Task: structure prediction
Amino acid sequence: MNTWNMTRNEIIEQLNPIAGKIFKIEDVVLTDEMSAETVEEWTSLAFMQLLTAVEEHFGFKFKMMELLQLKNMGDIIDAISNHVS
Result:
């Protein structure tokens, strides 16, 4: 999949079904504020599954320092953007 030069909206559009499946939320609408504190299904296991699915879908690997900084969906979207822009 060619993910170069994706806009933030394009990233969110592709991330919606991935996050929805992992967090078991039908018709999820991602927001920057979504986190373990606001999403009941956002467990540490689900978080790791999300990151793995993101890496597979967008074709890159997160660096360890990036992973330590991911606190909410906005951070994840920003990190994806840094890899695909």
Notes: The CA atoms of residues 21 and 28 lie 9 Å apart. The radius of gyration is 12 Å. The chain has four helices and no strands.
